[in-house]
Design goal:
The chain has one domain (2-65): OB fold (Dihydrolipoamide Acetyltransferase, E2P) (Beta Barrel). A hairpin with a 4-residue loop joins strand 2 (13-17) and strand 3. It has a 7-stranded antiparallel sheet with strand order 6-1-2-3-4-5-7, with no helix packed on it. The chain is globular. The two termini are 14 Å apart. The chain is an all-beta fold. It contains no helices and 7 strands. It holds the Pfam family NifT. InterPro entries: NifT, NifT/FixU_barrel-like_dom_sf.
């Protein structure tokens, strides 16, 4: 699914899923090989491959929902 990554005024990373009209804050992020795993405040876990470090925002990326 396509998601947009952006930062809010407080500097927190947010994920917006247009198909679900959902915007949630990233509460934790881990690295597995070349994939970043983001845990959102609603409990979703999203896997996003190929992100640069540091993450450039705003950007639209392909994500895979893990749970």
């Amino acid at each position: 699914m396509k998601v947009m990554l952006r930062t809010n005024a407080a500097g927190k990373l947010l994920v917006y899923v247009a198909k679900k009209d959902l915007e949630e804050e990233v509460i934790s992020q881990t690295q597995q090989e070349d994939t970043q795993i983001f845990t959102l405040s609603n409990g979703w876990e999203l896997a996003i491959a190929g992100l640069s470090d540091p993450i450039q925002t705003p950007q639209t990326v392909e994500a895979r929902k893990l749970n």
